Batch of 4 targets.
Target 1
Amino acid sequence: MPLKKTPQVFSASIDTVTIGTGEKAVTLGGANVMPLYAFDAPIENKPALGLELSDAGYNAELPKLADFYAGAETLADQAKRAAALDGVDFVTITLNAADPTGENRSIEDCVAECKSVCETIDLPVAIQGCGNIEKDEQLFDALAEALQGENVLLLSAREENYKSIAAAAGLAYGQKLGAESAVDINLAKQLNVLITQLGVQPTSMVMNLGSAASGYGFEYVASTMDRVKSAALAQNDAMLQMPVVTPVADDAWSVKESIASEEDFPEWGPVEERGVQMEISTAAACLASGSDAVILRHPDSVATISALIAGLM
Amino acid sequence: MALKGLDIFKLTPKSNCKECGVPTCMAFSMKVAQGAIDISKCPHLSEDALAKLSEATAPLMKTLSIGAGEAEHKLGGETVLYRHEKKFVSRDLFAVTVNAQNFDEKWAETEKIDYERIGERMYVELLDLEYTGDVAAYAELAAKAKGTGRTLIIDTTDAEAARAALEVVAETKPLLNGANAENTEEFVALAKEFKVVLGVQGEDLDAIYDTIKAIEGKGYKDLVIDLGSASIKSAFENAVRVRRGALKGGDRSLGYPSIVNVAELAPGDLHMQQALASLFTVKYGSIVVLEQMTYAMALPLYGLRQNIYTDPQKPMTVEPGVYAINGADENAVCCTTVDFALTYFVVSGELERSGVPVNLIISDAGGYSVLTAWAAGKLSAGSISKFIADQGIDEKIKNHTLIIPGKVAVLKGELEQKLPDWKIVVAPNEATDLVKFLKDYAAA
């Protein structure tokens, strides 16, 4: 008796969301099979990769990263490097310097910097806030207006500040919007419902279900994504069919394994390699669980993860 | 495929003899169907009926064990495709390849990976013995590898080499990988003679499946399926189709643990091997063979595995106790939070980043997060003060300043009453604000 092939193809599918404009625009989502199961049915839009830049600069203590950005003084120059890297589908700017408890850079300066990046590269741009609820709200409002026509992805609107961000990004200025919730299927769905109730089309938004580095509670990420994908596909739940965008970089590069110095842990070896392997492991696990896009920080991680995706499609 | 009580009842003598300890044959059958009693308790079942029943009531995926004594490891026995349905039972094992030429050097590196994380020893459980064409050298390699105490994989399709190695190490219960369409006869004979688990290989899943059927036909069922190294795509496809075919499709000829050699899928590329090892840890690998294991690889990989294989009903916890951070001594300030592993890692990570020496006091809070533990009464002024008294922290630590999580600021007053000679300080709500808070605190 030969082996039976029973592909698991669903009649429902993940929404498609396009970010950026022109030839380099990227479409996320669209699959009608479980994550990466290209053998069940072709996956038209492969998972996308974003390279993360910070307005607070890169970590110049990491030799390879410093080498990659050497001579690129401004964020726009760094974006040019990032955009030229093989495997990068979009560039992400994280506005760390806007944080009121840190540098507290002004809204105008942040907007100007993002604008210069959008003008310099033709790749789609995603923008992450600083994590401060009020500041992010003001930032995203201003960015949505200033970057009109660029079709950027603004990451992310949270339960506390989604209203004005959704109104500005999703309704008034035609940008794309990320809905961020804390690793929980019910919270994710609730936020999606609230945002769509304002009139934002599901095709104008993605989900940021939250993330965790490998070893730091990743089981919640894996199970939340497993459940979200099966609700979206098997139960045709329209409020969970948005593509999932996971900012891996921030978690992967802030755990002890990626920052503890080699002097403190000589047997662990160089810091940079540890961070890269943490980022690779986390990104691969996220993709296996259901991310339609991951955001990475290191060029070496991009090389490996883009090759992994290509190998699986 | 669970069998119904009625189907089992049809095969019983229906005599209600009570010899099984149950009043009626019907009641017995219902209990068997629920898995509450073993079918063999009925002395009157025919051989035929017994065979039929044990087949039908057997789990969909086999549980096997490889290695002997302390190095014994369980493989397989999974019952679900997604971990939120039920706990994944047998964590995947990691192997490093060694051969006759590079053994000493590679073992020296591999041996260094040995540490503990949340109560679990993290090390390379298996050594994969590559055959490089010299039978005598292979037997010598096997003997050396046996001396490491790790579980071995005899990785060859050459029957002569396999025999030479098995003669040296059979009592350590290695995995013999592999049987294929050409050598089925000889490898099944070897596996039976030396009583070892047999890995099955083939150029694609159809070929593997045919070989499995042939081996099962010879009465051998202690098998592991090699997912192959034709391409990343086919190895992943095979991993999913094998597990899904067994657990969803009910095909027991696919109900075996898997082995995937990522060293062959991405030779020389440790970054890609890391990506693949992570992928197969999340999706359906039972044994992952790597070219090398470094700390940079192990730290994320073992952490990921520990996460994926936790019980979804039972949170990971750390041992209650006092953790000295940044070289804290008896004069360093005290901080407290819950024993939920995730909270512990986040908080201890931030404390480390602050560079300020802190004694982190972890009391038993039932494995809940701060607010949940507080709501459930597991984290209270009483529980904290009792823990401090029980552990003799009053005497051990001279600095009687206790920083409590911002989310349970309400405990401050009660704690001040229960711990009159302590100064209670409330930390910020979020762990991310701890670095600044502690730095400011240390400066003040």
Target 2
Amino acid sequence: MNNTNEMLLEIQSLSRNEGFARMVIAGFVAQLDPTIEEIADIKTAVSEAVTNAIIHGYNSGDGKIQIYCRIIGRDVFIEVRDTGEGIENIEKAMEPLYTTRPELERSGMGFAFMEAFMDELSVDSKLGEGTTIKMQKRIH
Amino acid sequence: MENKTKKTKNTTILQLREGVKADFEIVNRCLIIKLLEELDHHNALTIREQSDKLITGRNVKDIIFDFTGTDFMDSSGIGVIMGRYKKIIFAGGQVAVTGVNQSIDRIFRLSGLYKIIHKYDSIDEAVNKFTP
């Protein structure tokens, strides 16, 4: 089977849209008949990426976040893009427990969860231009 | 948002009428937070505020986070639990989680949080462990 499909969602950078973004992606991926665990993995990864965009990309201010999802065969590709502040030091940002916002009680586990729950993860970021998180996961 | 307080013996049940993210209950000096919504960044803000009011105002010693009513938590939840843990640990308090499903359990295991918090099957079990 070699089916392809894609979708694009744009949301305002508001915390109340986090749950909505998770549900949309979970609903879209459902066509591959994933396990409950696979769906939970994807929901968590999307939640972390969108939360990062809201808190770090836009500093909890105004902005737009695009969530793109493409299915090729049994592979799910997800991109979460913001045009916010960008990440100064990607390597540092991806270290478990590292956070620039301890006062907001951020655990510093966001990227660690994205890495753990997806098969591939890459981060493109430019200061002042924004960040794109690319993730991939094979549904078995 | 208005609090409705019902008191029976040494148990206080606090119900919030609007924007209910969790039910809060205090048994002896143990705060039980029954989560009713997904514990993400959005809901973390409210739950944090409501818990902290009770922790300081009601002389809370131990905390139980009950996940029976929700099936999702991300790294924001880790932050909420860690933050409350830091508030009570110096007074000898403990933190427990109950009603944890498989995916939330994996988040706890991955984060290493089980090194400092306890997991029990039921609220009763946790309450008994805290207040023998």
Target 3
Amino acid sequence: MHAERNDGPVPGGQTFYDNIILLLILGIVVPTLVYTVWGLVEIMNVPKLPIVP
Amino acid sequence: MANFDFRTCSISGLKIDKASENLVRWNLIAAFATLAVGGLFALLVALTRWPSVHLLPLEFYYRFLTLHGIDALLAWIIFFEIALVHFTSAVLLGTRSYVPWLGWLAFALMLIGGGVINVIVLLGKADVMFTSYVPLKADPIYYLGVILFAVGALLGFIIFFINVILSKRDGGYKRSLPLGVFGLGAASIIAVLTLLHGAGIFVPTLLWSMNLIPNVDPSAYRLVFWGLGHSSQQINVCAMVSVWYMTSAFVVGGKPVNEKLSRTAFVLYILFINIASEHHLLVDPVLSTWHKIVNTSYMMHLAVLASMIHAFAIPASMEVALREQGYTRGLFEWVKKAPWSNPAFSGIAISILLFGFLGGITGVIFGTEQFNIIRHNTWAITGHFHGTVVAGTTIAFMGFTYLLIPYIFKRELIWKGFATIQPYLYGVGVAILSIGMMSAGAFGIPRRHYDVTFSGAPFSFTFDPAVDMFMSMMGVGAVLAVLGGVLYILIAFGSVIFGKEVQ
Amino acid sequence: MSNHKDDMHAPGVFALSLVFLAVFIVIWFAHLKWLMDIWAVR
């Protein structure tokens, strides 16, 4: 289905892309930190309004 | 387990094992059925928002809109994607399905979860829209249904990893995965992230609906919900792009012009596309400008770069293949001579054009803070995502169905003439629908709104009269699209049941 | 190295990509003008 050349050493980039578990880990960790964790930290640090009777 | 029952498809040459074949078949059948239901609700809702028709009464509008979101956006698409998981991780590799029992468990959970959701919403106990934002509270069974469906989907995507890793161990494929399979791998990775967020938000919300915890912070809900909600759309993008590559390969013999570039684009999706979920929160007061701008205006464009790569790589692969078939006159003979009467090809071509120009571009625009503030909660947003998910992903899946029916169901298509026009009819319908919505939204017409004449409200407000034309345009587009959708469902089920058997 | 690269010949799509680039540049400058006119960016 694609032009496959089964000769020679595998380029480093190809080895990285072939590691599906590493991609899975990165694909979970990166967005979770940059979007979810950062966002939750901001939300939790919103100061509460004082209750004025 | 002893022998695995393989056959070789006489059309595609694929080596197909019985277990995978059955899993693909039944997930597709569930997909067709949920699209039919979602499409019916779409028609009813569209005829309600078409001012001259205004079909449904108030509560049924919101109820059916909730179900339209669930059935068309979640269920149809995810069932189809699980079918693609089985197709790519086993059939395309020519290896066996390693854990078919898990596939059936996943299928059952999705079916039961989807059924529970539909029933509880129809009973009127969950008129919360598919976003179910707290403090809107649905019956606990609604959240349970969503959790069941999500767990089933997660198991289904996990099967991709199990199949691919064990297949590599057993020598099922050498060196790297084919590109179409790699794309579904990207989709599966995003799916795991998506469904982890789903668990993270729906479990506490379920507990809150049962009064076991006092409250769920609405800002936090929105943040984590969209980690589920938008990321699930990015599963769709990866699956759709994989379908584009695979269809180019199956129909015209297209090969990726540059594997490195195409795979890099998928990896950019894996790393960066989900943080664009932030665009749902651009007008939320709580999050900082930094969080908003870094996640959208900056990093979103890395994912857009990836889309640009695919947008040129796939037509280029078609051009190379068609030139090899002899269509070398001038710059564009290959376009004229491409197999436009093949609904698999035309589906993909229409999907690429409409996703790119209607859905994708508006997504990048509306995902920018300065634009978002004037488009948020208007119908322009709805127009955008009908451009992506319906004109893009759904049409691509429809096109691919026309290949899966002979390859996997071993049936010829019925009504081939109608099949030829179906992608065009549906595509034109959705394009008109989407443009109508976006134009109306530019004048401020809100989304998820029953009556923009505000009849019976204490204050009166009239929109610019131009909106009536655009809302009617939406209605016309919707009717055409539903006609195209009905054709698809009839051809799909009809071929599976009555189509001539392929030897 | 084989003639692998020479096989990948897509002048039509390449031409389209140049058109796309030209349109993008036009829209880029138009959006800068829009930012100045509507959003008072200087």
Target 4
Amino acid sequence: MYRIRHYIRPEQIREFSLIFIIMLAVLFFGTQIDGYYSARTFNRIAASVAIITVLAAGQTLVILTRNIDLSIGSIVGFASYFAGQQLSANQDMHPLIAVGIAIGFGALLGSVNGLLVVYGRVPSIIVTLGTLAIYRGVLVDYAQAKTITTDMMPTWLVDLPRVNLFTVGEIEIRVMVGVAVLVVIAFQLCLTYLLLGRRLYAIGSNPDAARVAGLPARRIVLLAYILCGALAGLGGFMFLVRFGTITVSAGVGLELSAVAAAVVGGVNIFGGAGTMFGALFGAVVIGTLEQSLLRMPNVSEFVRDALLGLFILLAVASDAVILQQLRSLWARWAREARETPAAHSEKESGHAS
Amino acid sequence: MKKSFLILIILTVMSLSLVSAQDEAVVATPGETVNMILLPKFLGIAVFDQAHQGAEEAHAELQNAGTLEFLGPTQENSAAGQVEIVTTAASRDDVDAIMISNNAGDQLGPALEAAKAADQTVVTWDSPIPSGDSEDLFVAQVDFDQTGKVMADMALSILGEDGGKFAVLSASPDAANQNAWIASLQETLEDEAYASLELLDIVYGDDVTETSYDQALALVDKYPDMELIMAPTTVGIAAAAKAMQDEGLCETVKVSGLGLPAEMLDFTLNGCAPEFALWSFVDLGYVTYYATYLLATGAIEAEEGVSFEAGRMGVYTIEKDPTREVGLRIVMGPFSVYNIDNVEAAANPGGAEMTPEATEEG
């Protein structure tokens, strides 16, 4: 039993507890909503969380470094508008080039954020609150009140939300869902195995120590912002694909949804802890609650928002309590192991035999 | 005897027509100087840009030597931004009139009071000041009671004579105009002629694309026998139509409501939203400008029964606003209903602008 602590950290159990919470929620809603246990429910929730998952992944990179990016709602809006405009002007543009434009544009705006945070030495919350308004303001001016509409878009883009990557029975994995999962897996691998990933954690855990240890902290934080902007650009492209009609208010408020998904998913708002899978689960928890409450009979508009807030609080609070308990349990085991090394090893060997 | 009686009648009629001639619509005198501000709910949306176009058209027509400024806040900052703009305008000497599409409820009260104290004319359009205080006149886009009938008629036209079940996808639960339209729809449905229509539910998409899209799909899941989503909001109708298209539901669930031709073009052509309605925001801006110009130059007073001519749009008479306790209004109207036959012309601004001019010349 003691040995568990060598292989699993409490933070990892936290992700399982999120899965447990999702299961509880699904069990509850199943009793309230007719035909809830169906492939359709899965398809709806999966499709609805795809965009926010990509944004939460980007946000996680920044939060890990003990910073925040509040401007991504505006980046999503601007990138989707810009990509839509380029596509409407060049109908034959290759899909990958169109995606590239959105990502590149997002990365550009992200790098502005990063440069201001790193070299301007202004707290990130203030910088990105400022650029949130600036990017949106420039977009309003740039757009000249013209709306991007579906009839301006090439057919492949309008049809893309319907395209399945593959289907299992009636469960459909849409291309957009596939993209989101791919992003999460790719960045999780980066966080776990690449030097960059480890450095993000190091900077967020203790910025001063990281600097003293000789880590190029500025470059890494800048890179985190560029990547976050790039993912917001990708999210913008997905926004264009899903909704088709893009006005200057596209993506308003998405920054808070992304932060919420990351934090519910166990990404520490003070940096240094959290995973991509956590952010994914956070997005799924919120998406499941939102979509299920929409489908629950006799729940009014006002009650629904309150319930959503309550459920999120419950999820995070119970999660925190569980994590606290686990941490102290781990600590106790560690202490016991130190105090009675002989007895401990005997016990363990006893178990083994 | 008979003859003199006839003469008497003729005389009476003539004198009556003389009296009414004195009461005839006031026509604006071009070339006066009125500095005006057109203040939309927020910038960057096609409808408000169209209202601006209409105002510019009237501005040129009336050869106003003054300025027409188009000032507005951003969407996130709409209410606070409107208050700020009106407050600044009230302290400026070079502003004679403010035309505002109110998005700040009664919060604009004090700022507008200051504007009135500075002798500025305040005309609301699209969305009035709920209390009716501190505004001279409200230019209503349509008669709110008519909206319900237009929606019910479109529902019947789409679903056929045997009717069916439908749901409403609105903007936010506290939007005054949305609620008035839905109430008018519910009232209309009580009429025998619409007995075959059943309203299942009213949901709110907050005029946010994502929320409206999700709400539309939730309606489909909640009510398997629903055949129509009625969205009296341009954001909601486009999002709902896209959702039905993405899920391949256009054959079973149709979308209708109030929408912009340019945004709905694809969905009308492919049958997802076969019919929808809207008024012209260009005309709304145009009429608003005329009313404001006349009020600001003192040609008319904001009083019940006063008539004036608003250029190409014809004659309007100021009346008491029945939708508010206090307040005067004129009603522009009418609705344009769009379907596969006319949506393309309306979506292409060049084509749409041509029509009224062509009829005038012909």
